[in-house]
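Reopening this ticket.

The earlier resolution said the output was attached, but the attachment link was broken on my side. Pasting everything inline this time so it's all in one place.
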Amino acid sequence: MVSIRIAIPKDLNYLIEIFTLNIPKYFHEKELIDFKKYFNSKNIENYFVIITKGKILGAAGYAYENKETANICWVLVDPSYHNNGLGTKLVNHCVDIIKTNEKLNTIQLECSNITYKFYEKLGFKIKYIKKEYWLNKDDLYFMIMDLTDNYKQ
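Inline output:
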């Protein structure tokens, strides 16, 4: 059984390990600096870890772009546990919380050509693509979920 809780500062070392395991397929090594900055920012209250048997297996969070838009960010799962639904649980957890804020009408995220199909399955739609955007030359997929289409279900 898995549980999700708010990340706490002492989780960072475990998350760095998971992040590193996802290099180079999902992240570039230089992105680890940005991840650490995000984790140590005021956004930590909106960042969650997924745990089973006391072990952190992944994390995801969100931040507010403005009063009407939230961003899903830094979704990562230990590669040993990919394709077990953990990423889906994490993203859906964030989406469910975001949907409780009636002022928000859009959830957005940036991902790559490697992961966009995962987000499509969760209801995100491609808004635009930038070729060879990321440090590793993967394409950027900017995706959105319009909450006015499926608000408060």
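Reporter confirms the inline version is readable. The chain has a mean pLDDT of 91. The two ends are 26 Å apart (CA to CA).
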